[in-house]
Large ribosomal subunit protein bL25 (Paracoccus chinensis), 205 residues
Amino acid sequence: MAKEIQDLVAEARAGTGKGAARQARRNGKVPGIVYGDGKEPLAIQMDFNPLLTKLRAGRFMSTLWNLKVEGQDDVRVICRGVQRDVVKDLPTHIDFMRTHRNSRVNLFVHVEFINHEDSPGLKRGGTLVVVRPEVELVVTAGDIPEQIVVDLKGRKIGDVIHIDDVELPAGAKPTIDRNFVIANITAPSGLAASDDEAEEAPAEA
């Protein structure tokens, strides 16, 4: 299922360079740039608080946005970078890339695990070890999936879940060309210790 395309509101920014960017920050704005699609880069600025709220909500860089700038046509964009203050970890600059609905883009998509209660391994006290909470996919910009779903039904202790075991959204393809691990189910420490002790115990005469 594709995500609903949400609006982002920005203003065109007069001037470029460090001086103009500093002035934008003093005015409570986050400076940024919009590039790509064979057009000239557009300097923008965004209100700090609404942007911070969206960043903290998560998955900002895996979301297709409808960028609205007064005096400009709306354009669909993907965030390609957020620079942050090294001390406060707050946004200081943001980069967007223009896309079309049929553009192919690389981005990280969240992995959602379902049916924990139907996993024999987890019922026995096993632990789900998530190796990749997100997977980088090549997707169509107009059909960015909400998530990749991994079904844990029937999964036992010792099972390893690879990318080839997962049904990916239509048109999506991993950027890594090998069958990498997404997660595994490990034995609980108590069970592992019991097994070790059983192996080490001397055989009775």
Observations:
- The longest strand covers residues 104-114.
- Residues 12 and 44 are 4 Å apart (CA to CA).
- The chain has two domains: 7-99, 105-194.
- The first helix runs from residue 18 to 26.
